[in-house]
Specification:
2 copies of one chain form a homodimer.
Chain A (H helix, E strand, L loop, with lengths): L1 E6 L2 E2 L5 E5 H6 L7 E5 L4 E9 L9 E4 L1 H7 L6 E7 L4 H9 L6 H12 L5 H14 L3 H13 L11 E5 L9 H10 L4 E5 L9 H5 L9 H11 L1 E5 L8 H9 L7 H14 L4 E8 L8 H18 L2 E8 L7 E2 L1 H12 L7 H18 L5 H10 L2 H13 L10 E6 L4 E6 L1 H11 L8 E4 L6 E2 L4 E7 L2 H13 L3 E3 L1
Parallel strand pairs in A: 1-6, 3-5, 8-11, 9-10, 11-12
Antiparallel strand pairs in A: 1-7, 3-6, 4-5, 4-7, 13-16, 14-18, 15-17, 15-19, 16-18
Helix pairs in contact in A: 3-4, 3-5, 4-6, 4-10, 6-11, 7-14, 7-15, 7-16, 9-16, 14-15, 17-18
């Protein structure tokens, strides 16, 4: 049966929804919630059926499709499509098996990931998959299989024989070293195409932060051009089709801030494998609010990353760093981007801890290649001589420079309740305040830390400033700042 | 800020969605996916924001709402509402705790169940709750707390001092004894108001089957009138506000056919407690495809139900029955309803096993009351004398008789591949075929079993007939009937 496309002109998330008039649905014996396949020319797409009760909302003979479905099918208002009923994909049964505690083989992971990639699973089904992997965990073999399934359901890029990469598993507010390491490495003639996710549980991911300076939503062709020109890029991985299931899984992890180990490992390594990385540095910050809380946990993650690297044919170097407190002054996409630029520009008031950590990371990665003598000094020279800044500007221009963003409209300061020495600044509380303020969607939202661990303060001195574009959200942060102590002063 | 309601004239499931024009959303600094509270007069409702890109799809100053939200808010096109931003409810954090493996206290279950009742949680959040309870399990205390939370977030009914009830935990195809036990018990002057769920993993629930004969979607006032008139009812519990969260939880269990023990216990007992049941019979069929696969598992469930009964102040009797094979001839709402009526009408070709099981159940429940001598004989007499049929017709008329339904348009027969004795008929395969055929949504879909366990068959004799209103779905069942053997012949 043929239907004429009606553009609903509305964007929705998750699986695609198609709307038919009640009368048409009845004729085809289709019900709300049924899965149907919509066939355009030449693409097809699985949608969940919704039913309109009136001819005004959806006339007979028409099918209502939303923005994402129209884009996926390359259709516009008035085009003709055919539809047919389809049952649940077999992968739903595999998800059920995992939820019952049965380990899955590669074939079943591939089916699940392939169906996620092609939007054939609903949010509910995807959520069960994430919950199942999270609560039952994944064996080493399952993590390798999940990684390979993610890679094999997407595109692979080839940037040459030696491709460097750097990744931080997060948990430390303001820890934006990637955006310094990339220009340092690239300024020395190495190839380092960096794809990043957006924030899952943190106030800002590298992609969110870089987006304050440059366009990060580049397609494959654009990325290749940027890397060819500059030797590097800093883009959002989700914009390409590299392990495309990853972002769709993150979409359902987000609402509960789930961050499962197996998925974390697969997610990181699949991205690296898809861009053909040969030398990878992974930073594991250690601290009470990071993924690795103890040296033992950090050693475990190190082992897992190295195991995966070995199975995928990559040289992987893992370093455990100090993740006990925020690094840099700014927390939130724009405020972190400003910190990064201050370091690259060698400004006097730039955050020194961020600079030193970036140099250490870059030096370690250079060392891993075996191609550079005195790697630490070389990295420092690139940064302090302005070479890295020059490279950063090249990358920004190649990706498409953003017009400078304004600081947030609203802000307030939080003051020291007593005099003393700051013995702790809690990453989790800082992240929570930033997220309630609107991070990462509100790029200008976040915190600016006037003081950090080790500083002495006098009662009434400002500890930090909270920013937001939304007065309501800023007011909500006051509940958090009152209830919890981001700073411990003794 | 005030908005004018636009009736989208479309029904959706799950949490409510509200649509604003992009321009209005920007003005209020609201983003797609934000939670907003819509305030009408006097009700308010939490919705998830969606954004329309054009004025045609949603003009500025208007807010698009779907059927369910309009019904919940008692609003119509053109009414004025105000909106405000709201953060995630605290219950999301409690769900996260449970997912991490932390047992929850009553207070947190109440918050979660209360938010589910009032549609303040998304499908993704509800799914994490179900998955967390399923994979980590629930302690006895948690099950009691969950049950109480379900009861206390809904209405409670009071039908008098002695209220009987009967429940089967399912797993056996065609096992429609409830619809026989209720009229038998009520014909003897007892009060037995039965509320049922719709099918979760089975081809038909009692509510789905009864709906082939009578209206089951009654409100509280209507149910009270039916029970006052007839001493009984057989209605869909979801139509009232008795433990209303239950059906909303089932909505997200459905896609993966999840049926978790803790939730099962809480679901059953909350419904019984809400209608003021004092004497409850619970049937636990035992077999390889039922919830209780072994006498040990049945004993465990028996203990759990009795423990809950004690804590909630109900007399609970649990019997483990033979659940090894389908009972009755029909599988699917209409075909099962026809079986029930054949037994009540004492037809010669009525399924005898269904009849005998119903008499045993009714007798056991009568015995539990301590008010009836020779309970088994009394139950049999009610059925064979036509008393139960008379009561059934009273109940049907009081609820609102359905016009007789037609058998399904399409069907085919499956024949014995060889001669021999039928040593097994697999409940799960039978249920799968029936569900692929369209059960329970398609009421006429299902199977009619010509032969059952113990019968001798000759090669080529019909074993069963598959029915469906949808040719496509009927064809899909052929894949299942080919790949799996519902019948084992030796």
């Amino acid at each position: 049966m043929k239907f004429t496309v009606r553009d609903m002109d509305i964007a929705t998330g998750g699986i695609h929804i198609a709307i038919l008039n009640e009368h048409d649905a009845k004729l085809l014996d289709l019900h709300m919630g049924d899965r149907i396949i919509i066939k355009g020319h030449p693409r097809e797409l699985t949608c969940i059926l919704d039913v309109a009760k009136s001819h005004k909302a959806m006339p007979c003979g028409e099918i209502g499709l939303f923005e994402e479905a129209l884009a996926a099918l390359k259709l516009k208002q008035g085009d003709a499509v055919t539809i047919r009923f389809t049952g649940k994909p077999a992968s739903v049964e595999f998800i059920r098996e995992k939820l019952l505690g049965t380990p899955l083989p590669y074939r079943k992971f591939f089916e699940i990931i392939n169906d996620i990639t092609h939007d054939r699973l609903t949010d509910i089904e995807k959520t069960y998959f994430v919950a199942a992997c999270y609560t039952h965990g994944l064996s080493n073999k399952e993590i390798i299989d999940l990684t390979k399934a993610m890679v094999n359901t997407g595109d692979k890029l080839n940037f040459g024989k030696m491709v460097l990469d750097k990744h931080c598993i997060g948990g430390v507010a303001g820890n934006r070293t990637t955006m310094l390491v990339i220009p340092i490495i690239a300024s020395l003639g190495f190839t380092i195409p960096k794809t990043s996710s957006r924030a899952i549980t943190s106030p800002a991911g590298t992609a969110d932060t870089m987006e304050c300076l440059a366009n990060v939503e580049l397609n494959e062709k654009q990325i290749k051009a940027v890397v060819k020109k500059t030797g590097a890029c800093m883009v959002h991985g989700g914009a390409m089709s590299l392990a495309p299931a990853d972002d769709k899984i993150i979409d359902v992890e987000h609402p509960l801030s789930i961050d499962a180990e197996g998925q974390l490992l697969a997610s990181v390594m699949a991205k690296k494998y898809s861009v053909g990385s040969t030398h990878v540095l992974i930073d594991i910050p250690m601290g009470k609010s990071t993924k690795a809380k103890t040296p033992k946990e950090a050693a475990h993650l190190k082992e897992m990353f190295e195991m995966l690297g070995k199975h995928l044919g990559m040289k992987v170097k893992v370093i455990a760093s100090d993740g006990s407190h925020p690094i840099g002054y700014g927390i939130g996409p724009l405020l972190e981007a400003l910190d990064v630029m201050a370091v690259l520009e060698n400004k006097l008031d730039a955050p020194q801890e961020l600079k030193e950590k970036a140099i250490e990371m870059a030096g370690t990665l250079l060392e891993l290649t075996g191609k550079v003598k005195n790697p630490m000094q070389v990295a420092r020279h690139s940064l302090e001589s302005g070479q890295a800044l020059k490279k950063m500007n090249e990358i920004i221009d190649a990706q498409g420079r953003q017009k400078p963003m304004q600081k947030a409209k609203f802000h307030y300061q939080v003051f020291a309740p007593k005099s003393g020495k700051i013995i702790e600044v809690d990453n989790e509380t800082i992240a929570k305040i930033a997220r309630v303020a609107g991070c990462p969607t509100d790029k200008a939202a976040g915190l600016y830390l006037h003081k950090n661990v080790g500083s002495k303060v006098t009662k009434g001195e400002p500890l930090y400033t909270v920013y937001s574009q939304n007065k309501l959200k800023l007011d909500l942060t006051k509940v958090v700042t009152k209830e919890t102590n981001a700073y411990t002063i003794k």
